[in-house]
Amino acid sequence: MDKRLARLLTFLLFALLPLSAPAADEGPYLSASFGGSYLPEIENDNSAGSFNLDLDYGYATSLALGYDLGTKHSELGTGRVEIEFGYRTHELKEVAFLEGTVDGAGDLNVLSIMLSTYAEPEDRKDDWTPYVGLGIGAARIILDRTSISGDPLIDDTDWVFAGQVGLGSGYRISDHLTLDLGYRFFATTTPEFKDATGAKVDSEYQNHLVQAAIRLTF
């Protein structure tokens, strides 16, 4: 599934390249990204106490549809507005209890939909255009068949509100093609799961992402 998603994003991007029209200062765009993802230890609380999930470094992909405001309508500001569909995944490495740490298995996957706005400077004469951004949306957090030493831990999912802040810079490859290098901090409200015994578990999610994207403006 993960490889198919990455291939689909790549196919959609390059399939649209021949559609480029004369250069424009503003207009709709399509963006596809891939990056490395880091999660701090996740603290979980239930009626029996607390435990932390330690996950390996993961990766993230996304597909975004947006609109570049250009500079012709400066009263609206300069920058971009977009809706982004994202996917993040990490493998569970260890679970730390008060009594000690044990090996873990399973995955933590996140599907998200975000509405974001990115502010850019009015002067775009240079090839590099820096930006800062804010986004709000929703995320589906999935603890997929997680276990400790072979025993089931959590296999559940929850929808939560999400927010992100970002910064980076776009490098103009051509009139319609931009390479985007950026950082995103992504966090959600408290997800709630049920563990293998049926007990309620309050969790958390905060993600750091460094990514590269290709942005095609029409």
Description:
There is one protein chain. The protein is mainly beta and 218 residues long. The protein has one domain: Porin, CATH 2.40.160. It has one helix at residues 2-15; strands spanning 27-38, 42-46, 49-55, 58-68, 79-97, 100-119, 128-148, 151-172, 177-188, 192-194, 200-202, 206-217. The strands form 2 sheets. Strands 1-4-5-6-7-8-9-12 form an 8-stranded antiparallel barrel. A two-stranded antiparallel ribbon has the order 10-11. A hairpin with a 4-residue loop joins β8 (151-172) and β9. Residues 15-24 have low confidence and may be disordered.
Q: How many helical elements?
A: 1
Tally of domains: 1
Order of helices and strands: HEEEEEEEEEEEE
User: Which architecture name does CATH use?
Assistant: Beta Barrel
Q: Can you list the strand order of the major beta sheet?
A: 1-4-5-6-7-8-9-12
Strand content: over 45%
Give the overall shape: elongated
Per CATH, the class reads Mainly Beta
Low-confidence stretches: 15-24
CATH overall fold name = Porin
Biggest beta sheet attributes: 8 strands, antiparallel, barrel
- End-to-end CA span: 29 Å
Oligomer: single chain
- What integer is the average pLDDT? 88
The tally of beta strands, per DSSP, is 12
